[in-house]
Design a protein that fits this description.
Chain lengths: ~300, ~425
């Protein structure tokens, strides 16, 4: 019987492929949200596994905030064309110009403005399902998210009124104007994502690996210095060896000091981070470090 | 690197039985918490706990929701040890208890029943165990918690064990393990307890890490529900011009290249020409892998159809007999129409009979109730517009389960477990092979 055994990544993979194919089977106009980040890189590989040798039965969609790392957009475009996939990019800038997205006074972050831009794209192309790379381990509220997450005609999630999900049976039925967000990586953790990328030997944007970058220390984070993030008076610009652990906008993504140049390095780093983060509680030394970090963050 | 696998388990119970503390203890002692989570614990300890960390606060988000009157739901949590990855379906709550428990249990390999050592076996313990049995969870752990409050009495532990063993024979659970623990102090959760020298078994985590789940998947009788037909459009590779593959997740059994298979509902026998995967063709594939089959003959097969092995045929019928859990405020009534989603197949259906409703106090069936309300378990008969090809749930959890969807609202209103059918499908007498 031992021959007929799947390890944890194979289990997560077959579950995710099943979900991808349910989307292709049940929806008229699905899209796959592809940013070029590590989670959506996994999604693309899973889509290849689900649908090859046919073309991917859905376009890729990306909402460009205009604050992306240039390395990310370059990778996004190149990977999409490698796969022969149709890539649709909708820009927050254009949504602002059209009055679809309205920035709050003084707000530089375009994080929230992604939402109206995405909803406008869904309406424009009449997408009925959007596959995304969100994971339940990311935060508490996400722990209760479904694989098939129903959105009403305003694009809203109603946590009180979610459809129960049993076995591997997903209810994808919609009325007109409604939409489904589908998260095939729901059961994946950050570690699973990197182990899968390593196993599949997937290319990732270079900024996930260690590189030299000018940074400033702000709110407990090393922020990359660029035209959108100029150093403030009193801040010292430092040239550091860093990488990004997770990619958001260039104005808000913290860099971590790291010598990691391979997948093995990254995985070892995440594993070690777990030991110090979690194993720290027993000994005073690490507990002090945790306290120090907390003070640096300064919110509480 | 050695291979690790995944164990899915569920825990369920009310606030006071220590479930949140137990989950907190598992995450904390297995060093699975992130810094920010630990900080949050420390903060709440500073504010409210007089410096004592309250592990139950890890489920705080849920409690806040409860205070706001939001329906409690299943939350999923993740942790890993070097031996295994774990997915916990955490189903809090007295409200919606059955519905959530059934949801969490549907994908579980193992279920943990928490018993308060002082209270012993109560109605909820029986109910939880009955649901685990109904959902055919192969492994059960009875964690006798708060042993510190009964002075780590071996006699008390044995009494509770005896109480359980009185009703266990009536249920379908193969593997039951009793473990005395104190979630609050961490005894026998991750670290062995010094307080119970009489207990020689494993800690809870050691048991979760080693319980044998390799045989939980069904490897008898090939079942491939077709999810999607793979037909490349305008392929540049000339060899793909005629490619026609049937994609799905194997829901039972093993398929090998060259096997004779039966396509349903067509009833036609053909041969597996290729088992296609992204990594290239393979000689065999097994449940629960996702594959694409290329068949010898050009048969009309589409989503919702099923490809099965000839050695063990499923039942095929429009008349279904099933146990159901009702999950919606609008009650299930005789004569009502619903959609049945079974594997990749969705069909219209009508409830023709409600045979009984399970009394959750006594676990005895009440015959011919007028309806099944939210959180009720019962047995019904359904007629479908098209035949379903299925196995009894006891034989195959994937081809023996279905959900009921209410037309119009599209709500998932019920979960069903099929009883074995009486009419196995028959291949057409003539097949393509000449």
């Amino acid at each position: 019987m031992s021959n007929y055994h799947l390890d944890h990544l194979q289990h997560l993979e077959t579950e995710a492929i099943h979900i991808m194919r349910e989307v292709a089977g049940e929806f008229e106009r699905p899209a796959l949200l592809f940013s070029g980040g590590k989670d959506s890189i996994c999604l693309l590989r899973l889509a290849e596994k689900a649908f090859r040798p046919a073309d991917l039965p859905m376009p890729l969609l990306n909402v460009d905030t205009g604050h992306h790392f240039p390395e990310l957009n370059e990778f996004r475009d190149r990977r999409s064309s490698q796969l022969g996939a149709k890539l649709i990019v909708r820009k927050v800038e254009d949504a602002i110009a059209k009055g679809i997205a309205i920035a709050a006074p003084g707000e530089i972050s375009r994080n929230k403005l992604q939402i109206p831009t995405l909803l406008a794209a869904i309406e424009e192309f009449r997408f009925d399902a959007c596959i995304g790379g969100a994971r339940r381990d990311e935060e508490k509220a996400r722990a209760k998210e479904r694989f098939f997450s129903f959105r009403d005609s305003f694009g809203q999630w109603d946590p009180k009124n979610q459809r129960p999900e049993l076995w591997n049976l997903y209810n994808g039925r919609l009325n007109a104007g409604e939409n489904m967000r589908v998260f095939p990586l729901s059961n994946w953790t950050e570690m699973d994502v990197w182990e899968y990328i390593r196993r599949e030997n997937l290319e990732v944007p270079s900024i996930y690996f260690s590189h030299r970058r000018a940074c400033v220390r702000r709110q407990g984070q090393w922020l990359p210095v660029n035209t959108l993030v100029p150093p403030r008076p009193g801040e010292t610009v430092q040239e550091l060896t860093v990488r990004v652990r997770t990619i958001g906008d260039i104005i808000s993504t913290g860099c971590v000091e790291s010598p990691a140049t391979t997948f093995d390095d990254i995985i070892a780093e995440i594993a070690a981070a777990r030991v110090t983060e979690r194993g720290s509680r027993a000994d005073d030394k690490a507990s002090e470090a945790a306290m120090e970090d907390r003070k640096k963050q300064g919110y509480f | 690197m050695h291979s690790i696998d995944i164990l899915r388990f569920n825990t369920s119970g009310s606030v006071d039985d220590g479930k949140s503390t137990l989950i907190g203890r598992l995450l904390y002692d297995s060093k699975s918490l992130m810094e920010d989570q630990i900080e949050a614990l420390e903060r709440s300890a500073d504010i409210t706990g007089g410096g004592q960390i309250n592990l139950a606060n890890l489920t705080d988000g849920l409690r806040a929701e409860r205070e706001q009157g939001i329906t409690i739901d299943v939350a999923y949590r993740y942790f890993a040890t070097p031996r295994r990855k774990f997915i916990i379906a955490d189903t809090p709550g007295h409200v919606q208890y059955t519905r959530n428990m059934v949801t969490g249990a549907s994908s579980a390999n193992l279920s943990i029943v928490l018993v308060d050592a002082r209270a012993g076996v109560i109605e909820q313990s029986r109910r939880h165990t009955a649901i685990a049995s109904l959902l055919r969870i192969p492994h059960l752990v009875v964690a006798v918690n708060k042993m510190d409050l009964v002075g780590w009495s071996e006699q008390r532990f044995q009494e509770i064990r005896d109480q359980f063993e009185q009703f266990l024979p009536r249920l379908d659970i193969k593997d039951v393990k009793f473990i005395p623990i104190s979630a609050l102090h961490g005894d026998n959760v991750v670290q062995p307890s010094k307080n119970a020298p009489w207990y020689l078994g494993p800690t809870l985590l050691a048991h979760l890490e080693t319980v044998h789940i390799g045989s939980d998947w069904n490897l008898q009788g090939l079942r491939l529900p077709v999810q999607w037909v793979n037909r490349p459009n305008n392929p540049t590779d000339a060899r793909l011009h005629d490619f026609r593959g049937f994609s799905g997740q194997i829901a039972g059994g093993i398929v090998r290249r060259g096997d004779k298979v039966l396509a349903l509902p067509a009833g036609i026998v053909t041969t597996v020409r290729e088992i296609h995967t992204f990594g290239g063709p393979v000689e065999e594939a097994f449940c629960p892998q996702s594959v694409t089959l290329v068949l010898e003959h050009d048969i009309d097969i589409s989503r919702g159809n099923m490809i099965v092995g000839l050695d063990s045929l499923p039942s095929g019928s429009t008349e279904l007999h099933a146990k159901v859990c009702w999950m919606h405020p609008r009650a299930l009534q005789r004569g009502k129409k619903y959609l049945v989603k079974h594997t990749s197949h969705t069909v219209q259906a009508m409830v023709t009979e409600i045979e009984h409703r399970l009394d959750m106090e006594t676990l005895e069936p009440q015959v011919a109730p007028a309806e099944l309300g939210m959180n009720d378990l019962g047995e019904i008969r359904i007629r479908t517009a098209k035949p379903l090809f299925f196995d009894g749930y006891a034989a195959n959890r994937m081809t023996g389960s279905f959900i009921l969807i209410e037309p119009g609202s599209n709500a998932t209103v019920g979960a069903g477990m099929l009883l074995p059918g009486s009419t196995p499908v028959k291949p057409e007498p003539s097949d393509f092979t000449i």
